[in-house]
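By way of example, what follows is a protein record of this kind.
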Amino acid sequence: MVELLWLIPSLPLAGFLVLLFLGKRIGEPVAGWLGTAMVGLSFVVALVVFAGLWNQPEHTYELSLFTWIPAGSFQVDIGFLLDPLSMAMVLFVTGIAALIHLYSIGYMHGDSRFPRFFTYLNLFVFSMLMLVLGDNLVLTFLGWEGVGACSYFLISFWFEKDENASAGKKAFITNRVGDWGFMVGTFVVFFALGTVKYTEFLPLAPGIAATTATFIAFMLFIGAMGKSAQIPLFIWLPDAMAGPTPVSALIHAATMVTAGVYLMVRINPILAASASWLPWTIAIIGCATAFIAATIAIAQQDIKKVLAYSTVSQLGFMFLAVGVGGYSAAIFHMITHAFFKALMFLGAGSVIHGMHEEQDMRRMGALRKLMPVTAITFLVGWLAISGVPPFSGFWSKDDILAYALHKSPVLYVFGLITALMTAFYMSRLVFRVFYGDARWGESADAELANLDAHDQSATVDHDESDAAHAIHPHESPRTMLIPLVVLAFFSAIAGVMNLPFTEKLEFLDHWLEPVVGANQAVLHLGGGQLAFELITSTIVALTGIGLAYYVYLKKRIDARRIELPFFANGWYIDQGITAFMGGIGRKAFEMIALFDSVVIDGAVNGVGRATRGGAVRLRNVQNGYVRWYALMIGVGAVVIMAFVLTQVNF
């Protein structure tokens, strides 16, 4: 069964090719169903391959299809490495992507470029699968660039609006900074070890000089910072909310932004061989990213911006786990985060759809009665990300905090503070959107009072004059609600894959042991310490929810004292980078360009001009006259004789 591995990326690729050439002819909704079917079948094949992987030694299987780049001693194959890490990635990427495809059929209904949207989605899934399945750094980089290109296409999908086009370009350019680090790291791996294949160079990591290993890991970490939105390269992700909401769920919750975490876990032997300061750097940057992004999320008014900064914060938690040696904890939180964050992004999309494209939470409220399925499923995601037991986010976040405490109490305290803010700002979102007073139109009270007497679907149809006075919220179609229900179910129970009570319940740790077991930090938690950590995490989560309740429902505290302009403007980090790039940075880049044109290009062009000038003068020697050639032979003979005589000792 494991031999069917090649089908997993091939099905989305086939869907992309069919939609690329026949999408307009197929039209809506067939194009959407075709794209969904291809990704859904890929998930089914992944389940079959997963069953077959159990019988493989160390749950690892390699498949080489053909040689891609033969160049002397450098050779790159199109080959796949299926092991516990890549299998875990494949399962949740294809599963969640299939649900997002299904959701998109309803969300993108009526869009003039409906088939093109699913073309991009299928290409994105194919690229992501190549990223996680590639058996070498170059093939991983192919998928890495593929998801980057698709993110540009999808973020700027509605490119008629300037802000959408700018957001797509910003994401593309910012990621190029990280891609530079990935490329340099790949080059050094080949020069140092003679191969870029994971199964060949990773076992050699313990024998690499610490300086070389540190440089490789640091360069690849720069690549991960760009793709997974860590400080200071996180500025692209909040702006990327300009794309359609399914794009936000697919790219910024479940798949693309986790690529950097995957890369760091994949090269864990290199990290283990590097200098001790590098893991500390990763942990500190991850912790700082989680903390700063959480403070920014507190003051955002756009429902998708809150979730965007929440994603940045949760990615920071994952990098914190990598830095403290909790590789399985990073993957654990990656999987649970994929479920509850995809759920909340799609839930936000359902709210926006029902609110007729309104995204400002100040114009929402009391939507739980008008959108019951969306509200109930969103509440599950809220409890999961807030860390309320027994929902999945509680177990995965507490796993990271346990490793952080093992590394440093300071990291643990900052992690707890960030967890408190997470519960606070997510509760703020829930209370302002689904509870409190209806702030979405003059007819709000009437709609709420008459809800039981009228069919909710009747609120969908209204004329333009009526819409000018009030928004009429309504529940979303089934194609959008079914994915919400499925994701809510897994957001609630996914924590069972790695419970901390006994080793027998740590299923994910055992599954990932062939990949990370040798380099993972070892925790010895006694019953008392485990109880202390679990109780502390629970109290922190409930405290955050309680504070939000008093601020936004009871209104005992003025929200303006918390939603500071400094936080609302993202610590002015984006503005600072913009000012630098437009000022001193631009001048520095112009000087670099001048140096390149005068010195670098000047040297190359100078050699060319010197060669050409010398050739022109030398050409005069070859004039075609026999007497000239005879004279040159005579002169040459005299020169040779003179040289010989100078070498003879009399």
Summary: Residues 626-650 form one domain. Residues 584-619 form the longest helix (36 residues). The two ends are 87 Å apart (CA to CA). Confidence is low (pLDDT under 50) at residues 451-469.
